[in-house]
Amino acid sequence: MRRxxxxxxxxxxxxxxxxxxxxxAILIAAPRSxxxxxxxxAAPPSSVWAVLTDPDDxxxxxxxxxxxxxxxxxxxxxxxxxxxxxxxxxxxPMVLVADRDRELRWRGHLWGIPGLFIGEHYFLLRPxxxxxxxxxxxxLSGALLWLFDPRELVPAFEAMNVALAARVGPxxxxx
Length: 175
Hints:
8 strands, three-stranded antiparallel β-sheet, five-stranded antiparallel β-sheet, Alpha-D-Glucose-1,6-Bisphosphate, Chain A, domain 4, elongated, about 180 residues
């Protein structure tokens, strides 16, 4: 009696090594990009900080970030809800800096996969004679940057900046 079957050969270690090196090269050579936006807000940094760090109020004014859950403190992991409706994406970044009235910064990975898409988002508040120079930016890296142009994000950053300035309003008292 003759046996008929399919012979399956496992790839040896050279093929696995080549595949691993190829994947590593893609991640190491992944593009990087920066987004930087600024706006002058006619209110002191403490007023801007009060609105920026009150995520429960975000749905009322923020067109970009629908919500943040968790403590905005160094080393804490927060839930970051970007966008609304069908465009909503959830990240779980770690807060790197939470320096009252000066800087808020977090870093996260899309879908929790390092190297695929990494974003380090930051907000800087600098006092000026007329209020606050508010800077919002992000350092982006990862393999997914080959698939889209990060400049497409700039209008959303700018819309959030304008909405924040309107929400703070001139002379709004810090909370």
